[in-house]
Amino acid sequence: MKKIRKFLLVVALFALTIFGLTTDVHAAKVPNYVITTDATYPPFDFQDKNNQYTGIDQEILKTIAKREGFTYTLKPMSFNAATQSVSSGQADGVIAGMSITDERKAVFDFGTPYYRSGIGWAVKKGSRIKSLSDLKGQTVAIKTGTSGADYALSIQKQYGFKVTYFNDSDTLYNDVINGNAQATFGDLPVIQYAVKNGTQLKVMNAKSPIQAGWYGFGVQKGKNAQLLKSFNKGFAAIKSDGTYDKIVAKYLGASAATFTGDKKANNSVIGILKANDSAFLKGLWQTVLLTVVAIILASVWGILLGIMGVSQNTGLRGLSTTLIYIFRGLPLMVLAFFIYIGLPSVIGMKIPAFTAGLITLILNEGAYTAAFVRGGFEAVDRGQMEAARSLGLSYSKSMRKVIVPQGLKIMIPSFINQFIITLKDTSILSAIGILELTQTGSLIVSRNSQGFRVWAIVAVIYLIVITLLTWLSNWVEKRTRA
């Protein structure tokens, strides 16, 4: 009986091993790619009422992936960040209504061109601007990195206008509507979609697109040949069987209400909240998570730098001063782009967006923390150190037992204030694709074009959280003084 049990056990273990190996082999045959996109670019890339990424680009990619047997992780971010993520090796491919140009061909390998587009230009409804010649001395709003921006810059001297740059379409359109800029250039189907869905612009060349060109799916030059091959094969299939034409017709002929639900309900604050409650909650959770983790680690890092700053060792003091100077001096967005896009090309490995954002906050907020920590320690009366040393305590023990406890008590309000600053700074990390509260707002606005109401909701959420933190600050301060 024992022999039978042993035999069955061996067979079971063998079967589990084979099953596991088979599963691993099967899993290995299904490649997963990281694909970036600009998810604020309807009708090509945006979120629907279920907070799922959709649009012409996304449905083409989804259909091809299913047919060709690969999976992908989508990373929405600004257009510039999306393209740079691919060129730096952080992502495998980009599909974001990206025009194929000679300059981009030097950096990307493109798949089969999948959509022929052209450039349009628009002005505010009721504007006195009737032709390009009327733009002399005026301001034109353009979206960074787009073919519309390239064209506007190519004719800027000829027509004598000034340009201002934006990273998202909704802010750009509102700049024109509010009269800060007098016109905008962009991809014609994108502008037409916005106008059809309530944006108060007038397209000046609806029937005659300028410089018609092709959109392409891009990968880093010389990399991901298999992904490109799969895209081309899948695209040829959906083109030949009519699937492609159905996808394009579905989005170009639809109104925003098709993807946002009942239009009237979504035009009210309550309607927007009901339709997007889960998205707002997820964005808020990501913001709070980033803030809490960052402030804890930044506090540890800042206290360490602060202690180094009051050390007897000249080298440690110099190192502390240098690090504080560097990371306080760098703008947060520049530091985020450097860590997320610049650093991977140097170290040869990918850095997840959340990790890059967290490191950015730790280094930046930690430097500010270190500055007030050092000041807090220096604020403790010098006689305290002298008294501790006269009692026979070493310098390190005097710091640990006497100076640090008193200094930390002085710093508590500053710590809470830094917590609030960190919370607000997380909004900047939307530029590298972290789906926090601000990025969530951008995605919702791109879908329903209700910028004022959506940003009012986001502002109120931030205000509520910051108010709670302020109350916490006051409570902690009172407790420490008691």
UniProtKB/TrEMBL annotation:
Name the CDD domains on file: TM_PBP2
Give the transmembrane ranges.
Answer: 284-310, 322-343, 452-472
Q: What is its main location?
A: membrane
Is Methyltransferase included in the keywords of this UniProt record?
Answer: no
Q: Which residues form the signal peptide?
A: 1-27
Known InterPro entries for this protein? AA_ABC_transptr_permease_3TM, ArtM/GltK/GlnP/TcyL/YhdX-like, Iontro_rcpt_C, MetI-like, MetI-like_sf, Solute-binding_3/MltF_N
Q: Which UniProt keywords apply?
A: Cell membrane, Membrane, Signal, Transmembrane, Transmembrane helix, Transport
Q: Which family does it belong to?
A: Belongs to the binding-protein-dependent transport system permease family.
Q: Which PANTHER family does the record cross-reference, listed alphabetically?
A: ABC TRANSPORTER MEMBRANE SPANNING PERMEASE-GLUTAMINE TRANSPORT, MEMBRANE COMPONENT OF AMINO ACID ABC TRANSPORTER
What is the protein name given in its UniProt record? Transporter substrate-binding domain-containing protein
